[in-house]
Amino acid sequence: MGRPPLNPRLAEFGTTIFAEMSALAQRTGAINLGQGFPDTDGPEEIREAAVRALREGRGNQYPPGPGVPELRTAVSEHQRRFYGLEVDPDTEVLVTAGATEAIAAALLALVAPGDEVVALEPYYDSYAACVAMAGGTRVPVTLRPDGPDGGFRLDLDELRAAVTDRTRLLLLNTPHNPTGTVLTRAELAAVAELACERDLLVVTDEVYEHLVFEGEHVPIASLPGMHDRTVTISSSGKTFSFTGWKVGWVTACPELLTAVRSAKQYLTFVSAGPFQYAIAEALALPDTYFTALREDLRAKRDLLAAGLADAGFTVHPPRGTYFITTDVRALGESDGFAFCRSLPERCGVVAVPNAVFHDDPEAGRSQVRFAFCKQEAVLREATDRLRILTL
Question: How far apart are CA 145 and CA 219, in angstroms?
C-alpha cells in the first residue's frame, strides 16, 4: 500500500491507556483502580426493569431514532426536577450510546475542518480523537493544582486568551474527569459571558452531575444566554452503576439537537432498546437514592485519599467524580507512565498516568489517577498494598 492504513487524523491515537492498564491488571492479578467502572451493579429494581422490558418485547427491535418516548420524557423531567430547566422531550432530547457517542456526534456535527475547539485539560481521551475526526484543532486550557485546598482550578484569563477568531466551541467537563474539579457558579458565569461575547457554542459533558461532594453542580445551559448555544451531555452509567448498558443523552435547543442527531444517526443509528426503558425508571428514583449514592462515594473517596496520603502520594482532593489525582514526586518519582507500568509488579495495584489526558504530556508528567468507585474492602486492600511504597 502506498500509505499507512490509518487515517492521518487518527495517527496520534493508538490503543487507549485504559485498555493497556486493564490488560496489565488482568495479567498480574493487580487491583484495577485505573478504569472508572464500579465493581458492583446498580439498583436491583432497575436491573429487573430491564429484564421486564426484554420479556415484554419492549426495545428488542429498533427503538425510535431519537430514543424511546419514555426515556426522553424522563430526561426532560429530570432536568426540571434537579435544575429547573424546561426541556421539550420531543424536540430537545436525543438518546445516544453512552456519553462517548454523544460527544462524538456533537463534535462531528458542529465542528468543521479548521475550526478550533477550546478544551479543559487534562481531558477524557475521546475528546481529542473526536476533535481530530471532525478535522478541528484542539486548543487546551490547563487546569492546575493551585487552589487553597490543593484542588485544580481554571484560569479564566487563560481561557479568554485561548479564544481566537477561529474558535467554534468550548468543550467543558464538570464535574471534571480526571481532576475532580467542579466548576463554580461564578466560574461558569464567566465562561457563559465569554461564549455570548464571542458567539461560541458550548458542549458540556456532565456525566458526573450527581457525584458532587463539595459545592453544587450548575448546568451552564441554565445561565443567561446559554440555552440556545449549549449542548448538554449526560448518561446513566455513572449515576446508576450500569456502565455496560451505554445509555446516554443529549439535551439542546431544537436547532442544535437536529444538527447532533444528523451525525448520530450515522454512528450507531439506535442502541440499548430494553435498557432505555429501565433507565427511564431509574431517573424517577427518589431523592434518597441520589443522596445515598453520593454519600457512599464520598466515604470511599475519603478512604482512598487517606490511604494514598499514608502511602506517600501528594493528594489533590476531588470535589466530585470517581477519581483522585495524585502526584508521585513526593515518592521520589517523576514519570507517571513509568510509575504506573511498574506499580502492579511493585505492589499489586493499577492506576492511570494523567499525562495521556494532556496535549503537552509534561503538564501532567508526575500526576497519576486512581478510581475509588470500588467496594470498600477492595479500596482497603489497595491502600494496604500501596503502603509498601513507603517501606
Answer: 23
Distance CA 257, CA 95 (A): 11
How much is the mean pLDDT over the chain? 95
Please tell me the distance from the alpha carbon of residue 313 to that of residue 303, in angstroms, as a whole number. Answer: 14
- Cα angle 47, 50, 55 (rounded to 5 degrees) comes to 130
Give the CB-side neighbour count of residue 215, counting CA atoms within 13 A.
20
Half-sphere exposure of 95 (CA within 13 A, CB side): 32
To 10 degrees, the CA torsion angle through 239, 242, 247, 252? Answer: 10
Yes or no: say if 260 and 109 are a contact pair by the CB < 8 Å rule.
Answer: yes
Average pLDDT over residues 90-95: 98
- For the four alpha carbons of 81, 322, 95 and 170, in that order, the dihedral sign comes to positive
Would you state the pLDDT for residue 147?
Answer: 67
Strands 93-96 and 230-235: unpaired
Q: Phi and psi at residue 368, in whole multiples of 5°? A: -135, 135
Within 8 A by CB and 6+ apart from 153, the residues are 143, 144, 145, 146, 147, 181
Looking at the chain, list the stretches that DSSP marks H as alpha helix, in order from N- to C-terminal side: 17-28, 44-55, 69-83, 98-110, 125-134, 156-162, 185-198, 237-240, 254-264, 273-282, 287-310, 336-347, 376-386
What residue has cell string 426540571? 80
What cell does 143 get? 487546569
C-alpha cell at 317: 482532593
